[in-house]
Specification:
Blueprint: E1 2-4, H1 10-21, E2 26-30, H2 36-41, E3 45-48, H3 54-61, E4 66-69, H4 82-97, E5 102-108, H5 120-128, E6 135-141, E7 143-144, H6 152-158, E8 160-163, E9 174-175, H7 177-189, E10 195-201, H8 208-219, E11 224-227, H9 233-239, H10 246-257, E12 269-271, H11 276-287
Parallel strand pairs: 1-2, 1-4, 2-3, 4-5, 5-6, 6-10, 7-9, 8-11, 10-12
């Protein structure tokens, strides 16, 4: 039995479906009972648990041969990462109460960064599970290509792709969620011992200009990158409803300044196979 948290999200959903397609038993760990029926109809066993409820999570994990851990996203975290610390404490407690032979945690590029930023929330998870007496894999994924979904309609209407990643020609590690799900499925199934870190990026590194070119092909119109100056970030993010934009700004600084990245020579680095064009074509088709 494979217990999957975050199953209603992009990575968790694709991961669960891959396991189901292989005839493997899946336990969907959901917070929302209203969404349980859809996964039950696909053949999943269902367990209801909030991600900050250690007792419910322990029950959901009990008897599983492997657990996939995905923390709820907190894009506007309270100072001190209060929300993430609550989730991390509950998950850590649950995994110790209901011993599981193998755990795969979705982590992130930059989880080892010494500068505090938005991605530090996953560093907290890695630290909390650092002494877990189980085989644990931290899957550090690059920047999701699917993040461009927020900009599709604007690019369709104006031909402009605003970018806080800069300069626009600087490539960084990006990856498709399909590749993340595939890597997670492999790690859940393959036997390993101890703790390990796996880094994952797509087949090639991508820059904002590459995203714009793929959008142009998918939309059938010219799309150009418009750099958003750093001095405008805070006002822009607050206008979007953020109350605490500093962690997000520092994350972007990390990518732009190069202290959030993968070493291309690292033996921990794996590469996915899904192209940026395949991802963006699918996103545009979905929104058509």
């Amino acid at each position: 039995m494979f217990a999957i948290t975050g199953i209603t999200g992009q990575v968790g959903g694709q991961l669960a479906q891959r396991l189901l397609d292989e005839g493997l038993p899946v336990r969907a760990v959901l917070r929302d009972a209203a969404k349980a029926a859809a996964w039950a109809s696909r053949g999943c066993e269902v367990a209801l648990a909030e991600m900050d409820d250690a007792a419910a999570l322990a029950t959901a994990f009990a008897g599983a041969q492997a657990v996939f851990v995905l923390l709820p996203p907190a894009f506007d975290p309270t100072p001190g990462f209060v929300e993430a610390r609550r989730f991390v404490a509950a998950v850590s407690s649950a995994l110790r109460t209901a011993p599981v032979p193998r755990v795969v945690c979705l982590s992130t590029i930059g989880a080892e960064a010494t500068e505090v930023n938005l991605l530090s929330q996953l560093q907290l998870l890695e630290q909390a599970l650092g002494d877990l007496p189980a085989a644990v894999a931290f899957l550090r994924a690059g920047w999701f290509i699917e993040n461009v979904a927020w900009d599709i309609e604007g690019a369709r209407a104006t031909g402009v792709l605003p970018s806080t990643l800069q300069p626009p020609g600087r490539a960084i590690p990006m990856v498709a969620t399909a590749d993340v799900a595939q890597a997670a499925a492999t790690l859940l199934r393959e036997p390993f011992e101890g703790h390990r870190v796996v880094e994952l990026e797509g087949p090639v590194r991508l820059a904002p200009v590459d995203l714009a070119a793929a959008l142009a092909r998918a939309l059938g119109r010219e799309v150009t990158v418009q750099v958003v100056p750093r001095g405008e970030w805070e006002q822009r993010f607050r206008a979007q409803g953020m109350r605490h934009p500093e962690p997000r700004m520092r994350m972007l600084d990390g990518f732009n300044e190069g202290w959030i990245t993968f070493d291309p020579q690292s033996p921990r680095l794996r590469k996915g196979t899904t192209s940026v064009q395949a991802v963006i074509d699918a996103l545009v088709h979905r929104r058509a």
